Amino acid sequence: MTKVEAETLVGKALVRPHGLVREELAAVVSNTDAEAAEVLRAAAYELKCRHSGKVVSMRGLVELGNVCAKDCFYCGIRRSNVNVDRYRLSVDEVERLAEANARFGYASIVLQGGEVEAEANTEFVEECLRRIRRFDLGVTLSLGEQDEDVYRRWKEAGASRYLLRIETSSSRLYSSLHPPSHSFERRVECLRALRRCGYQVGTGTMSALPGQTPEDLADDILFFAAIDADMIGMGPYIPHPDTPLAAVAGGISAEDRIRVALNMITATRLHLHDVNIAATTALQALAHDGRERGILAGANVMMPNITDVKYRRNYQLYAGKPCLDENASLCRGCLERRLAAIGERVNYGSRGDSPHFFARTAR
Ligand code: SAH
Q1: Ligand 1 centroid to 208 CA: how many Å?
Q2: 29 occurs within a structural domain
Q3: Fewest CB within a 10 Å sphere: which of 66, 78, 230, 330?
């Protein structure tokens, strides 16, 4: 794309949300021209500032456990990976982490983990939610596909947001990344169920996947729009050596993976305007300043890991996970400095709810 083409496109995108068509989104996502990239990025950052200011909302990320029933071809904690020591935190540990999270001034928390559909697990999560209520945090769950009544029980126990990435909106690509027992349709149905339960609903996809085209990525953004998502968590796919997909992942460079992931953030912000978008850890895994670049490309949320260092090694979804030996208080100082360097600051004490959620529930 040329700089002039980028300026024309941005002119359309800034006027109103949903202003771009598939070809334009595909052009943003696949752009490699540095001058055009700067025009697009600056407009996405302007929209980010318009809707959430020059601040970044934090959610401490708790990796609740790595036991998983799924066997996704790309994921390091897939059921078939026997090189992983499986763990699950205790309710006491979760309570302690939530307390630390509140002490850090992070007003939101994410409980993420492998996918387990069992009554004992449902009750464990309910118990965690009840215990951490007293810290008055915004609570996001990211625990995969569940029946609607489970989502409802967790909502009643105190969760207000749920993150369930569709991974890719292309059902063709989805089947090439998962065993036949994993259903694209069920995942979409789960997103609808989460909406019915009244959650702020997050979804997202991976970019730089083998076989993925710019049009597939454009369709991902149109999918976010179609399900009217409140929050988006996206990141580059990063091969994990103990997974089947690593063998076919091919030689995409780290810089190319970062570029397409940042382009996705920019295109999503230009198209959706008021959603929360996370600058995810996978970006940081590829470049030390990956998350800050995510913010400058239009993201407004970060999810610093607050899980105890002793567990982090067992929750490696991809190779090169950063900060394996850094505890959460170290991370906090590091983040403050990194954000100050780009003229942003931490949105301490605010839950940082999705502006889009309030806009859509008010209409
Ligand atoms: N079990 C939960 C959370 C899974 S882990 C769920 O199903 O929603 C969170 C995310 O990590 C996944 O949704 C996936 O998009 C991402 N992920 C997994 N393996 C990855 C890899 N190799 N590279 C980049 N991201 C990966």
Answers
A1: 14
A2: no
A3: 330
Q: How many domains does the chain have?
A: 1
Give the residue, out of 79, 169, 203, 318, with the most ligand 1 atoms within 8 A of its beta carbon, to mutate for a pocket test.
Answer: 318
Asked if residue 39 is part of any domain, the answer here is no
pLDDT in tens, 125-181: 999 999 999 999 999 999 999 999 999 999 999 999 999 999 999 999 999 999 999
pLDDT category of residue 251 using cuts at 50, 70 and 90: confident
Q: Indicate if the alpha-carbon torsion angle 106, 261, 11, 232 is positive or negative.
A: negative
**Structural domain boundaries enclosing 186:** 54-230+239-258+303-361
Q: How many helices (H) and strands (E) does the chain have?
A: 15, 10
Q: Is the CB of 282 under 6 A from ligand 1?
A: yes
CB 66 within 8 A of CB 113: yes
The reply to whether 158 falls in a domain is yes
CB neighbour list of residue 24: distance below 8 Å, 6 or more residues apart: 9, 12
pTM: 0.97
The answer to whether residue 287 is domain-embedded is no
User: Is residue 238 lining ligand 1, measured as CB closer than 6 Å?
Assistant: yes
Q: Which atom of ligand 1 is nearest to the CA of 245?
A: 22
Centre of ligand 1 from the C-alpha of residue 317, in Å: 6
246: domain CATH number?
Answer: 3.20.20.70
